[in-house]
Structure formats: C-alpha cells, structure tokens
Design a protein that fits this description.
By secondary structure, this protein is α/β, with parallel strands linked by helices. It has one domain: 3-Layer(aba) Sandwich (Rossmann fold). Helix content is about 50%, strand content about 10%. A 5-stranded parallel beta sheet has the order 3-2-1-4-5, sandwiched between helices. Strand 4, helix 5 and strand 5 form a beta-alpha-beta unit. Helix 1 packs across helix 6 and helix 4 packs parallel to helix 5. The termini are far apart.
Amino acid sequence: MKYEKKLLLHICCSPCLAYPYKVVAFSPENKFDKVIGYFYNPNIHPYSEYLKRESSLKKFSDEVNLKVIYEKKYDIEEFIRNIVFREENRCYYCLGSRLEKTAALAKSSKFTHFSTTLLYSKHQKHDYIKEMGFNLQKKYGINFHYEDFREGYLEGIRLSHDYGLYRQNYCGCIYSEKERFYNKAKND
C-alpha cells in the first residue's frame, strides 16, 4: 500500500497562496499527493474586507482547481477578546491561534501534514511561525511542513497580478489597518 502525503494548507489570502501552492502541489522535491486549503482568518476586519479576501480566494482556487475548506464562523469577537490590552503582542496570538486551528483540523481529518501561507510573507514573524509549527507538530502528532516561501516573494506578486487577484494593503486586523492608514495620513 502506497503512503499518501496529504497537506492541509492554511491560507491567509490568495496573493500569499499563489507561490506556496505552486511549490507544494507541483515541485518534484516536496510534491504532496493531495493539497487542500483552509481559509480561517477571524482577525480580518472589517467584515467587508474579509469577504473581498474570501471572494478572491474562491476565484483563484477555482482557476487552479484547489479544494478549500472555508471556516463558516467569523469570530472577530473572540479574536478581539484575546488581544485587547495586549495589542503590542497581538500578532503572536493571531498567528498562533490560526496555526493551531489548522493543526487540530489536519489531525482530526487524517492529513499527514499541515502548513501555512503565512510563511510566504516578508511582513510576518517568520521565525515565530516556524517555531510554533514545530511545537504544534509535537502537540498534535502531525507533521509540520516548513518551507521558507519568502524566496518566491516576487514570483508570488507576479502570479497574483497574472491571475488578477485582490491585493489587500494591510495584514488584516483593525490595528494593522490603523497602522497602515492612520500613520500614512499623519505623514501626508
């Protein structure tokens, strides 16, 4: 009986998916027999932004024939409860909670591996994501597929333009939105 490698890939957004998906689904050195995406991002604010990112992902996943599990619950309240008064460290909760939910789902759904497109962005806490992934590997007994997707950052941008994907201009939470636009407005 052949051992089947199945990857559950957490997706933050379609532009961050383009390059990692190409690598995990099609490169000979780490080809998985099955790759399924998982869109779980309760941090994204406002809800209209969440819907834009979800819609862009649906468009892209249809074009590349990628099955995606869409988390039905948009739990912004839980996200805010866990970061309020800890705004300086909000990214650790945000990254960790999404990665843990992915690992738990991968384990319960009989995947062999889990990973995240958060490893693609040059703006994320890469070393923390890597460390958290390997910690969750131990906790859940499921393989964390680590790869530094940042090496394909420019190719990912090109792919997102080629596919006409919606490209957001802030990470997702209300605080990152403020940092992006309020600071820019103050400086203008």
